[in-house]
Amino acid sequence: MTTTPKAYLQITLDVDAVNRAAAAKVYTSYKEPFLTSIPGAVSKDLLIRDEDVQVLHGFNNVEEAQAYLQSDLFNHDVVTGLKDLLNAEPEIRIYRVN
Asked: N or C: which end of the chain has fewer CB within 10 A?
């Protein structure tokens, strides 16, 4: 049974087209650890547009989305894996589902 997210963490990444495969590899590498080890994580999707790449994370609530941004998985693994691929700081937004 899939849980419906009650909050979303959206991270928009400015990544050149030539680096998108490498960015997708970071996403793929950490998707399963995110879903199995981060409290409240219920989904993770990669959205690709011509102008940017977005990662949409689903959570049970806003507090768990905020906590993920402080986690070792995010700060030590994901951020480190992406840092040389980004043209600018990621845009981070958290949304509550009503």
From this structure: N
User: Beta strands 7-13 and 91-96: pairing type?
Assistant: antiparallel
Please, what are the averages of pLDDT over each run of 10 residues along the chain (98 residues)?
A: 87 95 94 97 94 95 98 96 95 96
Q: Give the contacts of 85 (CB within 8 A, at least 6 positions apart).
A: 13, 15, 16, 19, 22, 23, 26
Instruction: Identify the domain containing residue 41 by its residue range.
Output: 7-96
CATH number at residue 20: 3.30.70.100
Closest CA to 31 of 43, 48, 47: 43
Kindly state whether residue 48 falls inside one of the protein's structural domains.
yes
Look at the chain and report how many structural domains it folds into. Answer: 1
Tell me whether residue 1 is in a domain: no
Among 87, 61, 55, 89, residue whose Cα is nearest residue 73: 55
- Distance, in Å, from the CA atom of 14 to the CA atom of 20, rounded to the nearest integer, reads 10
Residue 2 falls within a domain, yes or no? no
